[in-house]
Amino acid sequence: MSKIAVCPGSFDPITNGHLDIIRRGAEIFEEVIVVVFKNQSKSPLFTVEERIELIKEATKDLPNVSADESKGLVVDYAKEKNASAILRGLRAVSDFEYEMQITSMNRKLNAEVETLFMMTNNQYSFLSSSIVKEAARYQSDVSDLVPKAVENALRKKYEQ
Ligand code: ADP
Known about the structure:
Layout: E1 4-9, H1 16-28, E2 31-37, H2 48-58, E3 65-70, H3 74-80, E4 85-90, H4 93-109, E5 114-119, H5 129-137, H6 148-159
Parallel strand pairs: 1-2, 1-4, 2-3, 4-5
């Protein structure tokens, strides 16, 4: 079995919570591919290209982590990359139902790809891309919530 994991999400933008899951995943798997998917029900602040650039910048010290995009299904992407696992983070009970739904659907689509969940570190339990954007929009300090490049990118977006 391959030791490749796919870490899918919107990453609009990547936060320290995402990064925590990616870092810990990178210690377990030989390779972690962070994949940006367009979530149809969310209207994004950053383009897919911008999100990928920010992920690359935030993970540049992790040689076995790469960033990519996909427009299809996560399970198809995982199969194409010969990945054996989909890695997701769990923050609170509120994440659970949504994650259960996606996981059962993914298992139905392809039972060979296993979904693994990692509990977030307590300090990131209430951290989400949406909260960060809301705070940054009103010029709040988000320096302890996101990587430096994201902090700068948010400032630029909201200056416009
Ligand atoms: P999606 O739109 O698919 O939910 P997100 O970018 O919001 O994508 O999240 C991608 C993954 O990262 C999900 O598994 C989500 O639960 C996880 N995640 C998001 N924020 C955190 C956090 N603060 N701590 C741990 N995991 C997180």
